[in-house]
Specification:
This protein is an alpha+beta fold. It is built from 27 helices and 23 strands. The chain has a five-stranded antiparallel sheet. Strands 10-9-6-11-12 form a five-stranded mixed sheet. It has a four-stranded antiparallel sheet with strand order 14-17-18-19, covered by helices on one side.
Amino acid sequence: MTTASSQPRAASATPERPMLQRVHELLPLKPPRSRRAVRWHVGESAVLSLFGHSCVRKICDKNGFVFETLSEPKRSIALTFEEFDLVKDGYEFDFDPLGATPGKAAAILKSDEQMIADLPDEERELVKNKLIAVKKFLLLKARGAASHYRQNLAPILLKMQDELFAPKAPPKGGQMGPPTFRLVGPKRFLEWVNAYLEMGPLGLVNQYHLCGWRDDRYSREERPILMDHVYRYLSREAPTIAFLWGEMETKFANLNRGRIEAAGLDLRDYQGIDLARVTKEFKEHMDGRGVALLTCPAIDLLRVEIRRLPPFDVIAARKGEEVAQRFFHPSKGGVQGLIRPMQRVEADDWTTHLHTLVMELLPLWDAISPELREAAPKTRCVFSAAICCTTRVIPAMTLALRTGASNTKQLLRMSVSDKTALARSIGCETPWEYRATMDTFVVDEGSALLNAETELVCTDLGIAFKSPQIDTPQQRPKIERFFQTLDIRSLLRFSGRAFSNPQVRGKYESLARACVTVEELAALIVRFVVDQYHNLPHAGLGGETPRACWLRLTKKRAPTTPPGPSRVRLAFGEPFTVTMQAEGIEIFGNWYRSQKIDELFQRSPQRDYIVKVDGEDLGAISLRVDGGWLTVCGPEIMKGVNVAIWEAALANLRRQDEDLQNLVKPVVHRAIEFAQAGDAETRKRLSILYRPKTREQLEAIRIRMNQTVRHREEVLSPPTGPIDILGGRVFVGTKAPPNGPAQLLPPPEEPMAQIEATTERVRSKVPRAVPANRQPAPEIRLRKPPREWKPKERK
């Protein structure tokens, strides 16, 4: 029965998604599982296959089963009855109730097969006829009409032959056909009976796989010559088997000819005889005369030995390693079993097919001479990106002037962070919120991606780090295809393209036509990926957009939670050595303090410690202690503030006030907001350019921050009248008050008095703030009336 709400949804999905992608929606629903699991029996002689491991039952109690693997080292697998009931319906489960019995093991050794169904058709028909005869004999024996006595068994077998396997007459006369099966003598028949009673039907299989000549037919001199020509097949000249066999025949003929001449015999006596493939009689004749001749193997044996060579070695030797790697790569057709977002993330570097200007465009760019335009520095940027193979979203991307491990580290940082603020600063309308702790991070074998630093960061974040074979882009098909999409849909519209190779470029002057700056390219890529690529139908998703796929799958199978700020700081932060003081830990112009810091200072004051600082978030630091890392929070207003913004804010504060020791929060807030506004303007131009500070840059900034800010909790109320910004200062020189009577200021109102008292407290050295109800009344300041400005007279 179809509900009214489901009908429109199915109708609207018809034109968007192909029928093959919606077949699973048309299948009947699976019956719901019962809440109570069935308790299944597993015997002691049963062999189970659980996810590729052969196991036997070890313990069975009220809690469930405990299975033990047959392979070394022994491992135990515990499953409850509910878990076993779920596992038994999967494709990774197999059950053989008699797999551990001695008879089953003996039958497998004799037949070299696990099941009757594995036998060829002729062999299976033979086993069936044997089984009919053996069961007939056992039935006669049970009735007392037959025994194991051979003299009495012979006439019984003849009678059974006529009854069971007599040829049937044709329906319209003619000759009788041959018997389809003939019984053996009493001795061999009794062996069939004993084998069936001991091993079952598999014991009736003929051991043809043990038949044949087991010794080498060729001597120790003939075999090396054969293998030498076999390995000559592994050559870039790609010789044929017939050509190699002809050369091998010539080699054997020359050796035999030389041995005959060495024995003092005349070769003219053996004209017309093939000295390469000598017959057995001629070889025995020459052995009698003291000459040991060699026999050239047949061409069929040469083919057999060549087929035994590893296929990868054959193609790599005859066609090249790159062709072999492309042919034998294991991920052809994509990685199977991806059901959760960010389960597999592929990353790679790509040199953009666009020449860009490494400078800011001047307003007079169109007016400057062509010589100056040509002298402007131009380069091709390196674009690094990561893609979720399940949803095809782009969780991270960077743009740099060169490759390096810092690009990969920034990709990992962006993959676990929210980038919506960055996207909105450029003008994107769609949020860039794709983040999680990825299960597997796949890169190529380039030094910028595959390095010890990247692997250590992945280890700290709990991410599996993999690198497929070199020169096999098919093993990372999703990210390679995304680069083509970016090149075709985005970069194609700009002049200055470099193209993929000189043949495609032709006579196009790429450097002379370069007109896009690096900042404009970064903003272009972000707008294209966030607003266009994520919202267009994707062929790999069956016509679904990557953003819609992300929203749908995150509701069904949630991605792994991204790491918290503390773990991100430990993974991406930089270590510094600091000295603990009574006020706490001072670094980058801020004080960090907690109760545990005070206890550490009491036990060992003035001790050097190692801290880790995240350059993108100065709200807290990580302190190295005996038990690990301790998170120490700093000023609350520093949460989410990076080093660049804080350095700009401090520079602004130094220009306004030389005393940074007792600044109130609103003043610092305004300075940070001013710096963030400037950073937002810079972010619009820089976009995804790699901007995090290096260790050397952070150390230089730390040295410049020689003054520490002490944040006060007091909040200023807005004034209602004029503010005396120069009150309380002692003027000297031309700014000194006149000798005559000074003009008095009108008495300030209550808000003015509160602000004046606050200003006085800021200039004092008392660390604690005085309550508002205990503030002294402001004293009247003497001010000089403002003078009229006059131009300075020149002598």
